[in-house]
Amino acid sequence: VVGMAVATLPAGWFARTYGRRATFLIGAALGGLGGVICAAGVVASHFTLYCIGTLLCGVYSSISQSYRFAATDVASEAYKPRAISYVMAGGVLAGVLGPQLVQFTMNSWPPYLFAASYMAQAIVAVVAMVILAGVDIPVPTAVSMQAGRPLLEIVRQPKFILAALCGTVSYVLMNLVMTSAPLAMKICGLSLSDSNYGIQWHIVAMYGPSFFTGALIGRFGVHRVVFAGMLMIALCAVVDLLGIGVWNFWLGLILLGLGWNFGYIGATTMVVATHRPEERNKVQAFNDFLIFGTMAVGSFASGHLLEVYGWAVVNGVVFPPILIAAVALAVSLAFQRSRAAISA
Q: Can you give the pTM of this predicted structure?
């Protein structure tokens, strides 16, 4: 997660200078290298080497997050929410293949648990490189790095602040609960397979709704869709607090994934509406920096909260940020309605 945070701004600069495809190819290459280094760290029982590998995997993850923005570069204004959704829908395949790869490879290199899984990750990253090499991603030639408004002017807009707030709350809370859930399941006596399947359904829930999230935004408005996402994240915490059976964990993880999908895709749609075409790389990179930087803090906090205070406190932390985001959405929606009434 630290790798995700530190890579966002440099990746945005690189994309502005050399184009998105070059950035994506380098990201995938680092993902492959990260997988190999992680496997080497596991085999050598070298924790520092393992952390270096996961840092590179985080860089890859950060760069791949901007796939959703690349789709909007060639989409009309009305089609942007659906373009984002369809790109994110690729995660459905990831939700099935990823955990299954772990399930079938985690014991394939005895006695080194998960070493083969990281090698499988490296192979997947190489496959991504091959696919990306054949994709024609347009490079804007008339736009310089200095074009557009100053970044500070853009990010001070109330609509950007709301978008960044909702995106951060959605992603940070999802990551906080999701990273703690497998550990909590183990503490509660559930098997590693239970954890793998729980994460699998969580990832499917994260990306499955993407086939229609864009259409929902077009029909009901982005504010309502993001609010629904916040509500589902809160329901996840409620389900988790009601018990520690396998179905509590699985249902909670599914609700968490659904909430993230609505909240994150909605927030991404908001961000796209705050900048001009020539400003997109720097604004999108700064938005992701805010999200992943905060998420890095949340990732470290999740382990501490679980170890010191327990699973109930991890879920209790969810409610205050959700309330803040919900109030901000309600205020923004009310302001939009009043302005529309005045214009009418």
A: 0.78
Written as six digits, the tokens of 333 are 């929606």
| Start-to-end Cα distance in the chain | 47
- Comparing 28-37, 125-134, 238-247, 296-305, the range with the smallest average pLDDT is 296-305
Contact (CB, 8 A) for 216 and 265: no
The pLDDT, as a whole number, for residue 281 is 79
**Whole-number Å distance between alpha carbons of 306 and 41:** 26
CA distance 296 to 300: 7
Query: 16, 2, 1, 40: which is closest to 285 by C-alpha?
Result: 16
Q: Given the structure tokens 């803040």, which residue do they identify?
A: 324
Q: CA torsion sign, 267 to 268 to 269 to 274?
A: positive
**Which spans in 66-90 are helix H?**
67-72, 80-88
Can you give the length of the chain in residues?
Answer: 344
How far apart are the C-alpha atoms of 281 and 13, rounded to whole Å?
Answer: 7
